[in-house]
Specification:
The complex is a heterodimer of chains A (101) and B (151). In chain A, 42% of the residues lie in helices and 36% in strands. Chain A is α/β, with parallel strands linked by helices and 101 residues long. Chain A has a five-stranded mixed beta sheet with strand order 1-2-3-4-5. Chain B has 151 residues and is α+β, with helices and mostly antiparallel strands. The longest helix of chain B has 22 residues. The radius of gyration of chain B is 15 Å and the shape is globular. The chains are: A alpha/beta (101), B alpha+beta (151). The structure holds adenosine-5'-diphosphate and magnesium ion. The site of adenosine-5'-diphosphate has 22 residues of chain B, from helix 2 and helix 4.
Chain lengths: 101, 151
C-alpha cells in the first residue's frame, strides 16, 4: 500500500493506493496520525480511487482518521471508494458518521 | 458444525506461517482456486474479503505473541458450492457467540470488531468452532451460480 499526503487549498488529501488490509493498516494509521497532528486540517479527504482491495482493516483506518479529526473539530470525506470497499463500509454503517463522495 | 460428507470435485490445501504478508497471499490463492467456478468480480471480491478476515484473525488473535501455523483449505462441490476452511492452533475463543457479535473486539485500535460480521454477510454460511488453548476453525460456504456461457 502506498500513502501520499498532500496539503491542498481544499484541506488535507490522503491518497491510498493498493491493498488496504491488516498488513497495511498499521502504517496507514501512523501516517494519518502524523499528517493530521502536523497540519491540523479542518477538512481531510481520504482518496480511495486507487485502492484495489479493502477488508475490515479499512474501517479501523477511517475510524482512526475520524477520531483524529474530531479532536480538532474537523471533517472527514472519503472519496471514490471502489464498490468492494463501499460494501465493507456499509456493513459497518460508516455512512452515518463519515461523508462519502 | 455441519459436515459436508459429499465428495468434492476439487480441493486445495495450503499451510503457511502467520505473518501478515501472507494475508495477501491467502487472498490471491483463494481467488485463483475459485476462478474455475467462473465467479463474477463481485463474488470474487466477497470471497477474498471473507478469507482476508479469517486469515487475519488467525494471525492477529490466535497467536498474540508468536508466529503460528495457519491452514487454508478450499473445496468445490458439484452444485457450485465453494467451501473455505481457515484453521489455526492458537489460543482459541472463549465465547464464540460473543465474538461473532458486530463491533466486539479484543484487539487494539487497528481492529474494528467487524470481521465475523463481514464473513457472515459476504458468504452464505459461516460456522465457527473453537476451543480455548486448542485453536479455531472457521468454515464458510458460498454458492457460485453458473452463468450464461455466451459471454
Ligand atoms: N482465530 C481466532 N483466535 C482467537 N480469537 C479470535 C479468532 N478469531 C476471532 N477471535 C476473537 O473474536 C473477536 C472478533 O473478531 P472479528 O469480528 O474478526 O473482529 P476483530 O478482528 O476486528 O477484533 C476478536 O477480537 C478475537 O477476540
Ligand atoms: Mg478480525
Amino acid at each position: 500500500m502506498k500513502i501520499n499526503v498532500r496539503d491542498t487549498e481544499d484541506g488535507l488529501v490522503i491518497q491510498l493506493s493498493g491493498e488496504l488490509d491488516h498488513h497495511a493498516a498499521k502504517n496507514a494509521l501512523k501516517e494519518i496520525a502524523d499528517a493530521t497532528e502536523e497540519l491540523v486540517p479542518t477538512i481531510c479527504t481520504l482518496d480511495m480511487s486507487e485502492v484495489t482491495f479493502m477488508d475490515s482493516s479499512g474501517i479501523a483506518v477511517v475510524l482512526g482518521l475520524y477520531r483524529k479529526m474530531s479532536e480538532v473539530g474537523g471533517k472527514v470525506i472519503v472519496k471514490n471508494a471502489p464498490p468492494g470497499a463501499m460494501k465493507v463500509f456499509n456493513t459497518a454503517g460508516l455512512e452515518r458518521i463519515v461523508t462519502f463522495e | 458444525m455441519s459436515k459436508d460428507k459429499r465428495c468434492p470435485v476439487n480441493e486445495m490445501k495450503l499451510e503457511f506461517p502467520g505473518r501478515s504478508i501472507n494475508e495477501g497471499f491467502a487472498r490471491a490463492a483463494i481467488a485463483g482456486f475459485a476462478a474455475q467456478l467462473d465467479p463474477t468480480l463481485d463474488e470474487i471480491n466477497d470471497i477474498k474479503t471473507a478469507v482476508s478476515e479469517a486469515v487475519t484473525n488467525s494471525i492477529v488473535h490466535a497467536y498474540p505473541d508468536k508466529i503460528g501455523r495457519v491452514m487454508l483449505r478450499g473445496r468445490i462441490f458439484e452444485d457450485g458450492v465453494l467451501e473455505i476452511t481457515v484453521k489455526d492452533w492458537g489460543i482459541g475463543i472463549e465465547d464464540v457467540r460473543k465474538a461473532r457479535a458486530p463491533m466486539f473486539t479484543t484487539g487494539n485500535e487497528e481492529r474494528s470488531g467487524m470481521g465475523f460480521t463481514i464473513m457472515e454477510s459476504f458468504m452464505d454460511k459461516l460456522y465457527v468452532r473453537s476451543k480455548v488453548g486448542k485453536g479455531t476453525t472457521v468454515r464458510m460456504l458460498k454458492r457460485i451460480a453458473p452463468r450464461n456461457t455466451a459471454r
